[in-house]
Amino acid sequence: MPERILIVEDQTEVREALRDLFVAAGYEVSVANDGYDAIEKAVSEDYDVITMDVRMPGLNGIRATDLLRERRPSIPVVIISGYLGDAFEYRKTLEGMGVRYFLEKPVSMAEAVKTVRRAIKEARGR
Question: Are 72 and 43 contacting, i.e. CB atoms less than 8 angstroms apart?
């Protein structure tokens, strides 16, 4: 059974590119357009990893990650954002929530797959 990933990204082009990448890498992929959609999906379905954008309308990635940590603490979250370099406080806040994986946009597709694989492996203790 393929590993399951939830991609949380409000930009259609980025969301579709990530979806295509992870499908090609052998993952079963679901997508969420914003933090609210992500919470709904993550509490009703099982995922091996979640990729999360930070800046999204409605419920942003930081708050969504915080809520996910309360409800599904064992699912690793990989932050993929264009704002990590400019906003150190985002990273510090997310690290305080236990997030260990960060990728800055534009993201290398090879690095995205490598990071997701590492997050799943480490979450499973292997």
Answer: yes
